[in-house]
Amino acid sequence: MTLRPTHTKHHAPSAKKAVTGANKAKVAKPPAKKPALPRTAETPPSRPMAPQARFEFFRRLRELNPEPKTELEYSTAFELLIAVLLSAQATDVSVNKATRKLFPIANTPQALLDLGEEGLRERISTIGLYKAKAANTLATCRLLLERHGGEVPGDRESLEQLPGVGRKTANVVLNTWFRQPAMAVDTHIFRVANRTGLAPGKDVRAVEDALLKRVPAEFLMDAHHWLILHGRYVCKAQKPDCGRCVVRDLCNFRHKAALSASG
């Protein structure tokens, strides 16, 4: 029997594969993506700040602004109460514009009642929700006269019984006028507390309680104002100005390096 030699077939690489290989060699790798920057303040809370960092955080804010003040304009406890009541969902600037016209003619409970609801509405119409605020303001004036001799009470329970006065408003009055260590948590403070890791919390009350617990005692009286101003002008909602933040190295916000570079 004659054995025929076997032949092994060698297949040349297909044109398709060859072209694909060539293309892979030519295509450059895409550049690394830059860290995504937060579009709003709704970012996950940062990890909690260490006690030593919290102390240094407030020490620096105090050094920058030794005597922080509210930007609302007032000269009496009653004017402060009304200004804070009017500031709900409104800017301090808009409230000040209205009260500069209002307070010279009516800055006591009786004077506001004498002005009447229509007269009050006319003078605060540039502020959001002015109709409801006018009604609450006059109802508050009546209760102040009936229960407190026209004076602003210095305890939380009495303040919160006034129409339009909630926990935040009461805290502002207690802290700013009566110099009690109260913490009024607005959107600025809520954002700063969570973003920096100073006092993370899922809601306003949780942040308030955490701040009262974690802010060092020597800074507690003015912490409310420092945090509001820091949130309003530096640690802003849409574009935090990390590049000029004096507490940047203490902050646990994960986007701070990218924001500092982009600023």
Task: Explain how this protein is built.
The chain has helices at residues 15-26, 51-64, 77-86, 92-102, 109-124, 130-148, 156-160, 167-176, 187-196, 204-214, 220-233, 256-262. The protein has 263 residues and is mostly helical. The protein folds into two domains: 51-67 and 183-262, Endonuclease Iii, domain 2; 77-176, Orthogonal Bundle (Endonuclease III, domain 1), CATH 1.10.340.30. Residues 1-25 and 37-41 have low confidence and may be disordered.
Round the mean pLDDT to the nearest integer and report it.
Answer: 87
CATH architecture of the largest domain: Orthogonal Bundle
Query: How many domains in all?
Result: 2
SSE string: HHHHHHHHHHHH
Question: Which stretches of 5+ consecutive residues score pLDDT under 50?
Answer: 1-25, 37-41
Question: Could you describe the largest sheet, including whether it forms a barrel?
Answer: none
Tell the overall outline: elongated
From the alpha carbons, calculate the radius of gyration and give it in angstroms.
30 Å
CATH homologous superfamily heading of the largest domain: Hypothetical protein, domain 2
Short summary of the structure?
The protein has 263 residues and is mainly alpha-helical. It has helices spanning 15-26, 51-64, 77-86, 92-102, 109-124, 130-148, 156-160, 167-176, 187-196, 204-214, 220-233, 256-262.
Feature tags:
263 residues; mainly alpha; Endonuclease Iii, domain 2; Endonuclease III, domain 1; 2 domains; disordered N terminus
List the helices and strands and how they pair.
Layout: H1 15-26, H2 51-64, H3 77-86, H4 92-102, H5 109-124, H6 130-148, H7 156-160, H8 167-176, H9 187-196, H10 204-214, H11 220-233, H12 256-262
Helix pairs in contact: 3-8, 5-6, 9-11
